[in-house]
Design goal:
Blueprint: E1 4-15, E2 18-29, E3 33-37, H1 44-51, E4 59-64, E5 67-68, E6 76-79, H2 91-100, H3 108-117, H4 133-146, E7 151-155, H5 163-179, E8 184-189, H6 192-198, E9 201-206, E10 211-217, H7 226-231, H8 235-248
Parallel strand pairs: 3-8, 3-9, 6-7, 7-8
Antiparallel strand pairs: 1-2, 1-4, 4-5, 9-10
């Protein structure tokens, strides 16, 4: 049985007079893939940033393997929706920067392997302006994975790319996560189908203020593809439970097709 890696214990976050998260508790196991769904304003990204140590909690506590999170940690890495690459650095230099900023030794052979795995070896000396959106996001993943995080935090990293690139990146991230038995992942997404594809467990956050409305284990067999999950006999039930939870808690999403 996997050990506990992350604990959120009655966490609340306030900005001025606004309560963004309220009394939120969550436990995440080592090598678990958790997806968090909801719509804008519910507090999903705030929760992720608090876990990363980028946002202070107003009450409660977040602990990473027993150590309280009060600032950014070398053990966690975050991939953002909008790439966040340095335009004056090459692909390789952007990836290496993640190690430099933490004063870590740069293993160039490992960097080469990582670039190859993410299909970036052919553009290693390119600058971000020369890359497609999908390539830029691959660089974001490479930069996060370069530090070998125990906890990978993903803030809607597939939402800014086209549908084909999105599915390709989803599969690549699942493969990389599955190959590292010590890495835990938390993905924030608006997409119910993406959450079902990726997750061991889906957490529905309703708000504001953000609180957990539902936790649902996803017991579909791995490895998964979008086509396979949609044809699985349990898929309609899972999607229905998630949709009903969102509707009941006044989280408005487009009607399912």
């Amino acid at each position: 049985m996997s050990s506990t890696l992350l604990v959120l214990d009655s966490v609340s976050v306030k900005f001025d007079s606004s309560i963004i998260l309220e009394d939120l508790s969550l436990t995440v196991a080592e090598h678990e893939f958790v997806c968090v769904i909801g719509t804008s304003g519910g507090g999903k990204t705030t929760m992720l940033r608090a876990i990363a140590g980028l946002v202070p909690v107003s009450s409660g506590a977040i602990t990473l393997e027993g150590t309280r999170v009060t600032a950014t940690s070398r053990r966690a890495a975050m991939v953002f929706q909008h790439f966040g690459l340095f335009p004056w650095k090459t692909v390789r230099a952007n990836v290496v920067y993640a190690l430099r900023v933490q004063n870590r030794e740069v293993d160039h052979r490992r960097i080469d392997d990582l670039l190859h795995t993410l299909h970036l070896d052919g553009v290693a000396d390119y600058y971000p302006a020369q890359l497609s959106g999908g390539m830029k996001q691959r660089v974001g993943f490479a930069r996060a994975l370069a530090v070998e995080p125990d906890l990978l935090l993903l803030d809607e990293p597939f939402s800014a790319v086209d549908a084909i690139t999105r599915e390709t990146l989803q599969n690549e991230v699942l493969r990389l996560w599955d190959s590292d038995k010590h890495m835990t992942a938390i993905l924030v997404t608006h997409d119910i189908d993406e959450a079902i594809l990726m997750a061991d467990r889906i957490v529905v956050i309703s708000g504001p203020p953000g609180h957990i409305a539902l936790e649902l284990p996803i017991e579909l067999p791995r490895p998964r593809t979008s086509q396979e999950i949609r044809s699985h006999e349990d898929y309609p039930r899972i999607r229905g439970l998630l949709w009903n939870s969102l509707i009941q808690h006044d989280v408005r999403l487009p009607e399912p097709t």
